[in-house]
Design goal:
By secondary structure, the chain is of the alpha+beta class. It has helices spanning 97-104, 123-149, 181-191, 202-209, 233-238, 245-248, 263-269, 315-326, 369-387, and strands at 51-55, 61-65, 77-82, 85-93, 115-120, 155-161, 167-173, 194-199, 280-281, 286-293, 298-303, 310-314, 340-342. The chain has nine helices and 13 strands. A five-stranded mixed barrel has the order 1-2-5-3-4. A five-stranded antiparallel sheet has the order 9-10-11-12-13.
């Protein structure tokens, strides 16, 4: 997926993206769409779709009409219309696939949101736009200092300059409502530009900043995820996960979006399982639910008073016992249906691993202290003899 600047050197070491995600091929940007209709020819007599998709900083994308006689390709820098000025962005999608994207995002072709492209960006406009992008970290730091001085409970997470440099959008997060009227006056006086404040949520902030998740891969919200559905703790309960906020929370501080990915599979599998409150009536005693393995269809029960002895039953056996209990029939014991008896709450593996390296000690490189103590004890009598 990478372009020439994202490849490797002659010695095989990674070269890295020299354009920081703004290269012409647009193959390493966030939320990149592959145009699988790009190599297909249009039917005779049909004109190409006159709307293109343009990406600005991070994942902000908008649709624009192409003027007559102007043809653009993916990766071209274009100058677009904006409020009392112009903006500069990169073309990310052209052709019939743009029609599907507009239908997916519920944007009409004749809507006021779809503005026009003025022209292809000139070199001086690109240089100015690049210089404005380089100034954004300094502007963000200065804006944070002004917000702290005013005592505002908000966090300015990102700054986006417009292509002409006359306007800047400040993205911030806050738990409640913030009165930033004085902050806008101070920033307008300090930066001499038009200021727009836009509040975003923690998930949107994480998608704009990006990062690496606990799984070792890039965040889903910054690579391919476009809709941020709410995640509840019931999703963790369905998947038999411990309600540990340190493990279930993502970088945004909210529950991880990946908890919803496999939720439907767990819910459909749990339809056949009995509820944990259901107890198994036997002549030997009452069986109480302990835990389950959803996809292996195995359940563990223990008698009242014998909590350390678990009996592993299959789902079919548990359903058979429950059916007999509904008919007021009691089985002899759980041992008749159990496949395994465990004396501990955790299953012991059959395979025993041995340490073949011999480096299991964490302090193997530390100096032994016992030898030094023996030397000190030997030296002390000698000193006493010299004093005598």
């Amino acid at each position: 997926m990478g372009c020439a600047s994202c490849g490797t050197n002659e010695n095989g070491s990674p070269r890295g993206c020299k354009s920081n995600g703004t290269c012409g091929t647009d193959s390493c940007n966030k939320l990149t769409v592959f145009d699988w209709l790009g190599n297909m020819q249009l039917p005779s007599g049909k004109k190409p779709f006159s709307v293109v998709e343009v990406r600005f900083k991070n994942a902000r994308k908008e649709f624009f009409h192409l003027p007559e006689g102007l043809s653009v390709a993916v990766g071209d820098a274009v100058t677009t219309e904006s409020d009392n000025g112009y903006d500069l962005g990169l073309v990310t999608l052209t052709g019939e696939l743009v029609r599907f994207q507009m239908k997916k995002k519920k944007v009409a072709e004749d809507s006021e949101e779809v503005q026009k492209i003025i022209r292809k960006a000139q070199q001086k406009e690109i240089d100015k736009w690049q210089s404005l992008r380089d100034k954004e970290p300094q502007i963000q730091k200065r804006a944070r200092e002004l917000a702290i001085r005013l005592g505002l409970e908000m966090k300015i997470s990102d700054v986006e300059y417009r292509g002409d440099g006359k306007k800047a959008t400040f993205y911030y997060t806050a738990e409640g409502r913030v009165d930033f009227r004085q902050l806008i006056k101070d920033m307008a006086q300090a930066f001499s530009i038009r200021i727009e404040m836009r509040q975003i949520g923690p998930r949107q902030e994480a998608s704009r900043l990006g990062g690496i998740g606990s799984c070792g891969r890039e965040l889903c919200c910054s690579t391919w995820l476009t809709d941020y559905r709410s995640v509840s703790t019931s999703a963790a309960r369905y998947q038999q996960l411990a309600l540990n906020p340190l493990k279930l929370a993502g970088q945004c501080g909210k529950l991880k979006c990946c908890l919803n990915f496999e939720l439907d599979a767990y819910r459909s599998a749990l339809k056949n399982f009995p509820k944990s409150q259901v107890k198994l009536e036997t002549k030997k005693g009452e069986g109480v639910f302990q835990k389950m393995d959803i996809f292996k269809e195995e359940l563990w029960y223990a008698y009242k008073g014998e909590w350390m002895h678990w009996h592993k039953l299959s789902l079919e056996s548990v359903q058979e016992i429950i059916a007999k209990n509904k008919k007021k029939e009691t089985v002899e014991s759980l041992e008749e249906y159990s496949t395994e008896l465990t004396n501990d709450t955790s299953e012991k593996p059959d395979v025993v691993f041995e340490n073949v390296v011999g480096q299991d000690s964490l302090n193997r490189f530390d100096r032994p202290k016992r030898a030094e103590n023996k030397r000190r004890k030997k030296r002390r009598p000698k000193r006493r003899q010299d004093n005598d």
